[in-house]
Structure formats: structure tokens, C-alpha cells
Amino acid sequence: MLLGSGSRLAAINYSCGVQWAMSSLNAPIAPSPAFFADAMLGRLARWLRTLGYDTAYEKIITDETLIERVLTEHRWLLTRDRNLVQRKVLRDRHTLIISDHLQDQLRQLQSELHMTFDLTDNTASRCASCNDILTPIPHEEAARKVPSYVADLHPRFVRCQNCGRIYWPGTHWTHMLTRLHKLRTS
Question: Beta strand 34-37 with 76-79: parallel, antiparallel or unpaired?
Fold first, then answer.
């Protein structure tokens, strides 16, 4: 949704806390991992971004360009492409995602990469759309750019400096918390 001077609105979760452990992987990756989700994993990419993970994603990209970016940007590849992971250059730099279903994908990352997902309202996250860091904005500023009922209901807002989207903990927040709770208890 666009409002006024190119401002975009999105009612999704904006903050999180995440923990990361790489103890079982042989490939050296920075303690705060950066991922590249291939074209088949757009929904997973948006979730990981919302959970605070630096996750590159392009809907249309050649295998060669994807591999180049994974290597030059020191990213961990998340893919559903069985042929792609057979490339020698990607050995020990990928996770082959088995399922088409988001809950199963998150469960696989939790199991194989020892990721712990924690969604809170204390830590700003990344833009679900463009992956840039979100920054808090004053309520008064947000109130001029969001529908009045949203401004009345929510005290905190964040904005993506890159694409201008404004986020608040709307109903999507509750849905994500429910999914994460199910993930932890299953």
C-alpha cells in the first residue's frame, strides 16, 4: 500500500531476538549468519528477515549469479534445487530445504542449523520486503502516515530507510507468535 510521498505500509511483525549456534557445521560462517534463499523460498526469506536474519532473495536470478553472490557475500545458501547443491563450489555452504511448507522449513532450519527463533517487540528487525534494517520512528511521525485506527492501537512503529515501509505489531504478529509457539512445542 502506498501513501503520500511514496511511503509504503505493511502490517507485519517488526522485531525479534534470535540466537544462533553453528557448532555442528564444518563450514566457517560468521556468528551472525547471512543467508541467500533461492527463488523457490520467498516466503521463508520473508520470515527469516522478520526474525532478524540477513536474508538475500531474488525471485528471478540465474544459478551462476546466485552462486557468485553466495560466495562473494559470504552467505549460506538455502535452496530447494537438488541440482544446484551438487555443484562443488557450494559444498559445505548450503542447506537443501526438503519441504514446500513453511512450518516444516523452519523446523528443518531449527534442527539442522540449530537456529532458535524468538520473536519479541524489543529488537528491531529487517524489512520483510527488501532486507534492510528497520529503525524506530516517533509515534507522531508514524501517526501522520498510517491509518488513524492503526495509530490509535499501536504505540511503536519502525520504518525501512530503503523502501519506506512502516511496520507495526499488527495481527500478523499474533499469527507469527502462534506459529513459532507450535514450532517450539512440536
Answer: parallel
